[in-house]
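Field log, afternoon session.

UNIT: design team B
ACTIVITY: writing a sequence onto a fixed backbone
BACKBONE:
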């Protein structure tokens, strides 16, 4: 485990929630000095300190929690980089916090890992009570079985996703800059936050495979961007260093919340962004115009701070295999994933926002797919899946965007 004896700057993507004992800040780590670190938000900065009582946990998705020989290794989302966690060679224990007291749950043969914390220091056995609502006991890492007194529970997630926290592995000195996001919980006093806990989320190093002679390009999008990833990278090979945030970027509201995190410390040479393309739409088909546009505007405000060349990518259609769209509901919300919803609602709503920012160019993937209705995308249009799973379809989308990027880049030089 590499250790770095400096402190950190954390760029906020959420609001600072202040309370005497529960101030929370969150963002990408960047170095400052060896005694404290800043948390920067839109209104200024917060000073964060730690002491010997500060606990550090690594935060990972439960789907990545697959210990083998006292190691956990998994691939960073939207990356080829692997992250490895070395676990102590000693007995493990687990605590599972519960928000709602459910006395019947104790009779199950498994427990859902929401609120799961893994420790390598002894933790007394405990069943939930109204006053202390948590499970605790010995934890078999490899079988993922929690033993409490005479009872055993398999820890599994039948559906959905959740994050877990692993303690007794890291210290504040392990909080490496640029490649981790830190969720900090602490006490604010006299303008400083003393961290009680730091939860680290590994992001991978955006620069590790970069050619320093090439410009850096970040493409932001949902799973559709994953469909055209290979085609885009192929079309721009040797022209740009391409990156995607380590997540499915989902709805515009997620972008509003996490955009600072995705951008990283772009003020540092070699981590700047020269071009950024972005799209939000498929996850917003149940939103109102105001909800969608407000979040999109918030994203654009942060993107413009990077001084990068910005490209809006229109949202691809919903194919004809879906039910046709109808009007907005009584709350003004779009009708969901219906054929025609992008043409009638989402893309026009987006263009109302984009048109206010003439420096943002538009790559019209929606029109590109529409123009291929009787040819390249004929089979896709007849289906009932918004994704472009056939290799040639994703390749065409990626090449179309790549051509647009290369053209406007050359025009600006």
């Amino acid at each position: 485990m590499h250790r770095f004896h400096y402190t950190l700057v954390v760029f906020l993507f959420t609001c600072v929630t202040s309370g005497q004992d529960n101030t929370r800040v969150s963002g990408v780590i960047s170095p400052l000095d060896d005694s404290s670190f800043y948390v920067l938000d839109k209104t200024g900065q917060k000073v964060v300190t730690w002491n010997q009582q500060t606990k550090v946990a690594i935060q990972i998705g439960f789907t990545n929690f697959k210990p083998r020989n006292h190691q956990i290794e998994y691939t960073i989302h939207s990356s080829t980089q692997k992250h490895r966690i070395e676990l102590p060679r000693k007995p493990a224990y687990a605590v599972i916090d519960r928000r709602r007291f459910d006395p019947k749950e104790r009779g199950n043969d498994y427990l859902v890992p929401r609120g799961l914390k893994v420790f390598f220091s002894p933790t007394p056995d405990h069943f939930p009570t109204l006053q202390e609502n948590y499970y605790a006991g010995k934890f078999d890492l490899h079988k993922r079985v929690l033993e409490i007194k005479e009872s055993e529970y398999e820890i599994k997630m039948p559906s959905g996703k959740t994050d877990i926290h692993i303690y007794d592995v890291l210290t504040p000195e392990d909080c490496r800059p640029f490649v981790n996001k830190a969720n900090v919980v602490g006490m604010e006093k006299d303008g400083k936050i003393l961290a009680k806990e730091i939860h680290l989320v590994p992001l991978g190093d955006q620069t590790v495979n970069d050619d320093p002679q090439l410009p850096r390009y970040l493409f932001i999008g949902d799973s559709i961007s994953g469909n055209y990833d290979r085609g885009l990278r192929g079309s721009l090979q040797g022209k740009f260093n391409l990156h995607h945030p380590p997540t499915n970027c989902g709805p515009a509201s997620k972008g509003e919340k996490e955009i600072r995190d995705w951008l990283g410390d772009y003020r540092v040479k070699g981590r700047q962004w020269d071009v950024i393309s972005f799209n939000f739409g498929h996850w917003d088909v149940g939103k109102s115009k105001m909800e969608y546009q407000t979040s999109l505007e918030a994203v654009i405000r942060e993107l413009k701070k990077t001084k990068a060349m910005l490209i809006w990518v229109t949202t691809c259609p919903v194919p004809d295999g879906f039910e046709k769209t109808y009007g907005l509901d009584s709350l003004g919300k779009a009708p969901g994933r219906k054929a025609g919803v992008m043409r009638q609602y989402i893309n026009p709503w987006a263009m109302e926002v984009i048109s206010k920012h003439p420096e943002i160019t538009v790559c019209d993937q929606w029109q590109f797919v529409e123009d291929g209705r009787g040819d390249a995308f004929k089979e896709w249009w007849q289906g009932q899946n918004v994704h472009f799973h056939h290799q040639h379809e994703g390749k065409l989308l990626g090449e179309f965007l790549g051509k647009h990027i290369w053209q406007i880049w050359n025009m600006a030089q």
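LOG NOTE: The longest strand covers residues 192-202.
NEXT ACTIVITY: expression trials, pending approval
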